[in-house]
Amino acid sequence: NAGVMQNPRHLVRRRGQEARLRCSPMKGHSHVYWYRQLPEEGLKFMVYLQKENIIDESGMPKERFSAEFPKEGPSILRIQQVVRGDSAAYFCASSPTGVSGANVLTFGAGSRLTVL
Amino acid sequence: AQTVTQSQPEMSVQEAETVTLSCTYDTSENNYYLFWYKQPPSRQMILVIRQEAYKQQNATENRFSVNFQKAAKSFSLKISDSQLGDTAMYFCAFNNAGNMLTFGGGTRLMVKP
Questions:
Q1: Exposure on the CB side of residue B52, measured as CA atoms within 13 A
Q2: Which of A71, A115, B41, B46 lies 20 to 30 angstroms, CA to CA, from A37?
Q3: Torsion over CA of B87, B92, B95 and B99, rounded to 10 degrees?
Q4: Record: contact B43-A110, CB cut-off 8 A
Q5: Where are the beta strands (DSSP E) in A57-107?
């Protein structure tokens, strides 16, 4: 049973380009979360999605960032017109139902974005 | 809003000895959950231990145990018989049964041979 799969593991983009990060949740998990980790910091919540729905995007920057979790296929975190401050590790996590503490998040290995 | 504070940016311990990592949090909630995650150099986030706030008994997982002091809003992690493989970043995290985990800034633990 594969865990949470993220790709690419490493992505290099120049300023102004677009970055797309993909996340396939664990089998049987229909809830996906994206977190961002800046260097030497803890993870910060960005967005929570279920299939075809954004449930909570309170941690997502208002501009340039978007996320989706289509009916078929992986969840996508999209960053348009990247800037150097977007350089970070982006983690995806999944759970079988919504986070309630009783349901533990399973994290992927992260995607490290470097903006030149 | 909840906050989680880890006051020790770095810690070191000799192999086979015991080390305690500190975590404090701030919340007005009564029911919530606390976690310790380990992040080794591979960057994978690995759950170490979990505590439900309504349980008075401290959680234990093999060499890992917590000291949960609800009134003091403190949730420290004790690692006994430290092993080289315990070298990692350790993050304390809080969930109030909402949609997100709130993480502390992390403690870098180095286990020395």
A1: 8
A2: A71
A3: -60
A4: yes
A5: 65-68, 75-79, 88-95, 106-107
At A29, which helix (H) or strand (E)?
Answer: none
- B-chain residue closest to A48, CA distance: B99
Query: Cα B72 to chain center, whole Å?
Result: 15
Contact B43 A112 (CB under 8 A): yes
Residue with tokens 């976690």: B35
Which of A44, A12, A7 shows the shortest CA–CA distance to A23? A7
Q: Are A41 and A34 in contact (CB under 8 A)?
A: no
Chain B residue numbers with beta carbons less than 8 Å from the beta carbon of A48 are 99-100
Structure tokens at B101: 């985990």
* Least-confidence region, from A53-57, B10-14, B96-100: B96-100
Question: In 3-state terms, what secondary structure has residue B53?
Answer: coil
Eight-state DSSP code of residue A69: -
- Smallest Cα distance from B83 to chain A, Å: 23
In tens digits, what is the pLDDT along chain A, a chain of 116 residues? 568 999 999 999 999 999 999 999 998 888 999 999 998 888 999 999 998 899 999 999 999 999 999 999 999 999 999 999 999 999 999 988 765 555 678 899 999 999 99
Q: Could you give the CA distance from residue A90 to residue A34 in angstroms, rounded to a whole number?
A: 7
